[in-house]
Amino acid sequence: MTSMDEQVKAYNMALSDKDREICDLLRSEIDRGLPKAENKVWHAHPVWFLDGNPIVGYSKQKPGIRLMFWSGADFDEEGLNVRGAKFKDASIFYTDVSEIDTKALKRWLRKSKEIQWDYKNIVKRKGVLERLF
Prior knowledge:
Layout: H1 6-13, H2 17-33, E1 38-42, E2 45-50, E3 53-61, E4 64-69, E5 82-83, E6 90-94, H3 102-114
Antiparallel strand pairs: 1-2, 2-3, 3-4, 4-6, 5-6
């Protein structure tokens, strides 16, 4: 398993016990599902990258902990039903650790390696996304 970046650890530690429990489970599942991913705090929340491309991350928001897949809109997954208006992202919110379906999460993590849009070069392409896989 990949070692957790100190910034990500600090992010989780700053949360309430309930939110930290959710984020700790998400982090361990993401680390297990994406062992080659680099993780860091990016735009103020933990994000995992493959070859410099953002894949998945989570953040504390008003409705709960948001788990977001940058290319999740193309996963064809009912559970990832909070869609981004501008890009290919899709999310789910959790308010309790018991809501996390680890089987679905493992499936989404597999898909996150197979279905990727090139966010890494979005600025260079002036906001245009291209499909990588």
